[in-house]
Write a structure and sequence with these properties.
450 residues, mainly alpha, globular, binds zinc ion, ANK repeat
């Protein structure tokens, strides 16, 4: 079939563009199977079906078109827009990521010299900008696995490119998680490999800052990972407990409230050491962190994560207290106030958590009591006033605060509630009470109660 010309569409290709707009997956599939449909056909503006699908935010369509061989880097559009640019303009993060994974070139510019990231930023689609800026194609690392110029050997041993790429593309920037990833990989977890890796990270960081389309986000991320690697080396060479010592230091909470002071200071120091002091991103970070007292919110970790990954709100989703992994659902069975991915994460944290577990338990019980009072109050309200019973779960952490409008409580009711609660609490802790050691705790992570 001849290469597609702008605006020369068969009847079925015209239909294809129409059904893509309607989001009709079935019809799209049928038409893509037709011999009269070219997947990279061009409408009168030079837009391919993939560009249409990306611009309209139709994820299923984009996937299907790519499966059928759509060219993600087609650049026939009259203003030089690519599918990635359309994805960024649409504000759909998933489609933006899909285009990148399909090999979309991030450096291509449109007819007025703007990249996809710049265009997305121009229309205020900052989530898409973050996705584009955080994306680091494997080739970027692979470049260093071949000797360049007069080098006798490559800066990065090829076997390290894979594990390093995994780390670079992570969205969980928790220092403990990164150290865990290093520790898990025998190729990485030694001084020489870590040295090579951090130097490559530093080189990529420099490149990100010096390229025409400067990428501060990726530069900061590379610098941050480099700092962690350098600290790993320090612990590997100077400490008997090696990287476990680093993890312990990162997790150790202070006496008063268990806040991990070393971790906070370490992340602040990483940010401060970013070598390009004039960048907007660095100045923003410093402005957000500098006035915050150690132990208050926001933590340096949350500020950095938000700047780099665009993730906001550590409230709705549950993150592992140890490693920051999303979707953690195992709760400490004593205090019910901390959540972990699994028993391993709990064991790692226990040496410091045990000092505050009881205090947290008291906090939890107070919250429970408040919640129970609130529930009773709701039940006692006349039927027509009742709100729909969304979640009567007593262990839900997001119980509404006591409504100040109903502050007065019947003291006898309160006493009864309290008594009932104390009984319940003693049931929960029996067997795990006393001076619980690691052994006692080891088997006691349990599923978060639904
Ligand atoms: Zn974890
Ligand atoms: Zn606990």
């Amino acid at each position: 079939m001849a290469p597609p010309k702008k605006g020369e569409l068969t009847q079925e290709e015209k239909e294809l563009l129409e059904v893509i707009g309607q989001g009709n997956v079935q019809e799209t599939g049928r038409l893509l199977g037709s011999k009269n449909v070219r997947v990279n056909c061009l409408d009168e503006h030079g837009m391919t079906p993939l560009m249409h699908a990306a611009y309209k935010g139709k994820m299923d369509m984009c996937r299907m078109l790519l499966r059928h061989g759509a060219n993600v880097n087609c650049n026939e559009h009259e203003h030089g827009y690519t599918a990635l640019m359309f994805a960024g303009l649409s504000g759909n993060k998933e489609i933006t990521r899909l285009m990148l994974e399909a090999g979309a070139d991030t450096d291509v510019v449109n007819s007025v010299g703007r990249t996809a990231a710049q265009m997305a930023a121009f229309v205020g689609q900052h989530d898409c900008v973050t996705v584009i800026n955080n994306f680091c194609p494997r080739e970027r690392l692979d470049y260093y696995t071949k000797p360049q110029g007069l080098e006798k050997e490559p800066r990065l041993p090829p076997k390290l490119a894979g594990p390093l790429h995994k780390m670079v593309t992570t969205t969980n920037l928790h220092p403990v998680k990164i150290v865990m990833l290093v520790k898990e990989n025998p190729l990485l977890a030694e001084e020489d490999a870590l040295k090579k890796c951090y130097r490559v990270m530093d080189l990529i960081c420099e490149k990100c800052m010096k390229q025409r389309d400067m990428n501060e986000v990726l530069a900061m991320k590379m610098h941050y990972i480099s700092c962690i690697f350098q600290k790993c080396i320090k612990f590997l060479t100077e400490r008997e407990d090696k990287m476990d010592g680093f993890i312990k230091s990162l997790l150790k909470g202070r006496e008063t409230d268990g806040f991990p002071v070393y971790q906070e200071k370490f992340i602040r120091e990483c940010i401060r050491k970013f070598p390009y002091c004039e960048t907007t991103l660095l100045q923003q970070l410093v402005r957000s962190i500098a006035p915050v007292e150690i132990g208050s919110d926001p933590t340096a970790f949350s500020v950095l994560t938000q700047a780099i990954t665009g993730q906001v709100g550590f409230v709705d989703v549950e993150f592992c207290t140890t490693c920051g992994e999303k979707g953690a659902n195992k709760r400490c069975s004593v205090c019910k106030m901390v959540i972990y991915c699994n028993q391993d994460c709990q064991k790692i944290h226990w040496f410091t958590h045990k000092k505050v577990c009881k205090v947290l338990k008291a906090v939890y019980e107070k919250q429970e009591l408040e919640a129970a009072k609130e529930k009773k109050r709701q039940e006692e309200r006349p039927a027509q006033e009742k709100e729909p019973d969304v979640d009567s779960n007593p262990s839900n952490e997001e119980q509404p605060e006591t409504d100040p409008g109903h502050a007065e409580e019947d003291p006898t009711d309160l006493a009864q509630e309290e008594k009932a609660h104390v009984e319940e609490a003693s049931q929960i802790t029996s067997g795990a009470g006393g001076d619980t050691g690691l052994q006692g705790m080891a088997g006691s992570v349990k599923e978060a109660e639904e």
